Amino acid sequence: MDLNDLLHRHQVALMRVANAKSVEAAHSHGGIARCYEKQIASLRDLLGASGRMVTA
What's this model's pTM, rounded to 2 decimal places? Predict the structure, then answer.
C-alpha cells in the first residue's frame, strides 16, 4: 500500500467517524483511523518525509 492509498483510507475513516450513527461506530472508525495514522507515520519516516497528522 502506498502513501496516497493510506492517506485516502485515513480520510475515509475520519469521515466515517464524523458521520457515525452511534458512539460505538465512531469509536471503531476512530481506531481504524489511528491505525492508518501509525502506518502513515512509519512510511513517512521510511521515506524521509515530514508532516503532522490530524488525529481522530
Answer: 0.81
